[in-house]
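Dear colleagues,

For the upcoming journal club I promised to circulate an example of a predicted protein-ligand complex. I picked one with iron/sulfur cluster because it came up in last month's discussion. The inputs are reproduced below in full, followed by the predicted structure.
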Amino acid sequence: MAITMTKGQAGLTGNSAIAYAMKQINPDVCPAYPITPSTAVIEEFASYVADGDVTTELITVESEHSAMSACIGASAAGARVMTATSSQGLALMWEMLYIASGMRLPIILTDVNRALSAPINIHCDHSDSMGARDSGWIQLYSETVQEAYDNLIQAVRIAEDENVQLPIMVCLDGFITSHAIENITLLSDAEVQGFVGEYNAKTTLLDTDHPVTMGAMSLPDNYIDFKHQQSEAMARSKDTVLKVAEDFGKRFGRKYGLFETYRLEDADLAIVILNSAAGTTKVAVDELRKKGLKVGLLRPRLFRPFPFKELAEALKDKKAIAVLDRADSMNGFGGPLFNEFRSALYDAEKRPKVVSRIYGLGGRDYKVKDAVAVFEELKTIAETGRVDTLQKYITL
Amino acid sequence: MATLKELSKQNELLTGGHRLCSGCGIPPIVRLVLRAAGGPVVATTATGCLEVGTTIYPYTAWRIPWIHSAFENAAATISGIETAYKALKKKGKLPGGDKDIKFVAFGGDGGTYDIGIQALSGALERGHNFLYVCYDNGAYMNTGIQRSSATPFFSNTTTSPAGEVIVGKQEWRKDLTRIVAAHNIPYAAQASPHNWADLSKKAEKAMRIQGPTFMNVMSPCPLGWYTKPEDSIKWAKLSVDTCYWPLYEIEDGILKITYKPKEKKPLEEWLKPQGRFKHLLKPENRNLLEKFQARVDLEWQRLLDLDGKRI
Ligand SMILES: Cc1ncc(C[n+]2csc(CCOP(=O)(O)OP(=O)(O)O)c2C)c(N)n1
Ligand code: SF4
Ligand SMILES: [Mg+2]
């Protein structure tokens, strides 16, 4: 697909920007299977392959389970590997996600967030990537097309860092971000190549002079030790995310951290929310600030590993916080984001009140008025010091 | 092809000291197949006896690069490895310089006929350059002898027990070799470890041919067949001499039976020594035995009719 650029700027959908980043990264192997709303990533990348714009070997597998299996095989053979999926596709990969991370393979996946069946639905929520939150993959979330593009380029360096060696997932909202055109700033191919560098795997199946056994059975005398190492690598990756973001900022001027805050510093009331809905929430923040209400927002970028210390530090002085989840844990105790934030704030001296609000499942609109209503609830909670409704669905 | 003497002097690519049962048919199959590569070879194995028995960490019986990732995806895993090879070769990035590497996927009957058939079908259709070897021991042995779609007629397994009312597995086995051949791949064959020369010849041919190739190999299992370890090769031979497990190949669409027993032995001779068929020898189950024999005869005749023909 030809992209028309004016002074490095181009109007691109989220999917096109992801496909374009993949083209610029030029991975060795891309196993792919289509699913709405990420299909265009695969289609556009297939065009880059067909037109000789990349040297990538595309494997048009027969399922997402095989896509991730082929990613694992190719990565174990020393290739830089990328793929993209959504919803049922990620769910079908689930078994293999754990194997990719357990084998410490730096596979790079874009998840265009979409609701899980049943009922079948093609629109955005985060139940797919939240279902994979304990699979040992680093997860980066993106508010905008620009951020999704920038995240994917940074993801390569994070996953392959020798202190990390873990697979990574870049998430963006289905349709809202994947299909909306945004004017974004693209890097040049040389800038991307210079940033991601060449991948040289340390141990590979293709080194037939030095044979290795991968995926051996491991029993109680060492399984937990492997998992311990994996867990430590995951915790370490937080620093790598920051280091890579810093270099990215230095080179290209766009700054990223573990999370974004918006008018949060002096706020008493805060909403925590992922991805595109943060944009809507910022409008509500501005409106309410005009009325003198001290409100703000925190939008996590890195969800795995969960930077609990930094998040708690940013929120510890708030009076009331609503954590908005676009997924339900179906546990009777709020969404996944809520549970982790509430837990992170447990050690805060003046523990803020924290409530769970579940919104926007299956693509239900989340509007400025919905955010305003949440802030109004928080105001009452802060004033009375009482939480009447710990958790509930909104946008119904 | 190497002589038996030459073979015996080559280094084993799968060492001894592994934990597969004594008398297991899998190790001789794997060794013969790997030797046929005649050079660098990379393998993957589906979850099952072969994987568990050769790799309990920190030990490994593999002297070649080897990976296991899951049960149903050996064909998809090898697709990824073989594609990475193509990609890195093109870029001049193969470790140790440019070389020709062979790729082999091993799977049990469960991992191939059942849960892995989709991944296998996909990999065959895409035309990757690899050999898939199914070792068919007729059940999910690693998990305690449960039925698979390769389990022989009326066989007693833990999920198709020879009960009072339902006597063993009621369904005829899936003809996987023919299903694979229907993908119009350049080479598919059936083999058995008792006939090492036939097996080696087929493996060498399969490795030489560009594109996806497939071998389905009879693999005796003393544990699941309830037979003596020292007799395994004998029962492999009898599975062929009774025509239960014909040796044939399909090369570029032409089917060729590679071994025709001079005298086709009665099926009962193969069934009798195996505990999994014990119930078939009871007088009240005579009709089942006859049914089994009739089906074997029919399938053998079908194969004879196709011998030498383009299918
Ligand atoms: C997805 C999945 N389902 C089930 C299992 C359990 N399992 C492991 S090996 C096996 C049977 C393997 O049978 P087969 O492929 O015939 O190999 P064999 O054990 O006979 O060597 C089963 C059911 C698994 N590991 N993964
Ligand atoms: S159970 Fe059967 S197939 Fe498995 S190792 Fe033992 S003999 Fe071999
Ligand atoms: Mg089996």
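Two points we might discuss: The pocket of iron/sulfur cluster (ligand 2) is lined by residues B 20-21, 24, 26, 49, 53, 137, 141-142, 221-224 (CB under 6 Å). The two ends of chain B are 28 Å apart (CA to CA).

See you all on Thursday,
B. R.
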